[in-house]
Amino acid sequence: MAVKTLTRVILGALVGAVASYIVFLAVLAFPHCQNQVIYLNRVSLTWFQDVSIPEQWGFLHNQVSSFSLNTQDGETLQAWHILPLGLYQKHEHRLSEEQPGQRKEITTSISFQLLHDDPEALLVLYFHGAAGTLGSGWRPPSYRAMSAAAPDNIHTVAIDYRGFGASTGTPSEQGLLTDAVTLTEWALEVAGIPASRIVLFGQSLGTAVAISLAHHLATRPDPVLFSGMVLVAPMVDVKMLTATYRIAGVVPILGPVARFPRILAWLNTFIRDKWSSKDKMVEFVHICEQLEGNHSKYYIAILHAEDDYDVPWFHSELLFWQAVNASQSHGTSPEALDGKTQLTKIPLGAAGWAMNQKTRRGVIKKHILKHGFHDKIMSYPIVSLEVLNAFRLASNGA
């Protein structure tokens, strides 16, 4: 009798678990619920902290100017302009006397003038990953890494996308692209920094935003090409991410469904925001390879850690292959590229390995690190080095 009762309890628990999982999958079909899974924008990770006071994250007094940007579709984005440390030191006295707090008019600030008036100023447009705000996790140390290799002239401007932190609105693929375009237009038209002195940096979701932005501007009748892109822990697209993503690196969200490709493919038809970085990367490289002139050079650096349990590093492998394949007039099979990788791989010992592919018009690089997880890698020296390389190699004719 006890055995039968135990069996019924176990069966009931299994049926309940299966039913709950089916309900969970059904809920994911709704766009609002998808948003929370893809963007996690309601998870601020900076509770009880005011992003208009960057000093809370260890920055020097007025080293970071907090201001807002207005998008064409009526949203307001929170932004930070981070001065490089060497430049800050030269103007520390002036900056210490400036009124702190959220800037109503950023163009009157000392930091903006240092950016706008310097013909050698370099600018990183920074696109962060899902969840959190400008001040969450490893992002503040990452901002410092942007200028670590050239602390006198590499500025960084980062934004919270719509629906994140103090920014208004609700996130969507088109919406985040609009946010990125808004930041770019501010950099080009207000700050007066030409695209040849701008590098795009993205991490995780931010890589999809950066690639989408580069693709969008390259496809204009009068193409706009940046000095380069540095992509950390990129994803191929949302469909592949859903099949491989694990919560905290342990619990696979769609692991059970991924065993049945047809069911997974059917569920993927409900995905609204696809973020197909692979396809946009291919088109971007195609366009760059066909353009001529000194400003048609491009530079792409892809970095990923082997111990990244959020976005597995084979996403970078696939993205790298797609980019290299797009640069070849007759294409390259995965097998052929893999063989070439083994021949030209640069071993870096405990730091991992790298590969550089020089194309007709540019350079495509990948670094696979042994360590770094999903976020910590953003503060590593390799990031500082690749940001500097993106500026120098492009300006020297990559």
UniProtKB/TrEMBL annotation:
<protein>
    <recommendedName>
        <fullName>AB hydrolase-1 domain-containing protein</fullName>
    </recommendedName>
</protein>
<dbReference type="InterPro" id="IPR029058">
    <property type="entry name" value="AB_hydrolase_fold"/>
</dbReference>
<feature type="domain" description="AB hydrolase-1">
    <location>
        <begin position="124"/>
        <end position="279"/>
    </location>
</feature>
<keyword id="KW-0472">Membrane</keyword>
<keyword id="KW-0812">Transmembrane</keyword>
<keyword id="KW-1133">Transmembrane helix</keyword>
<dbReference type="InterPro" id="IPR000073">
    <property type="entry name" value="AB_hydrolase_1"/>
</dbReference>
<dbReference type="Pfam" id="PF12697">
    <property type="entry name" value="Abhydrolase_6"/>
</dbReference>
<feature type="transmembrane region" description="Helical">
    <location>
        <begin position="9"/>
        <end position="30"/>
    </location>
</feature>
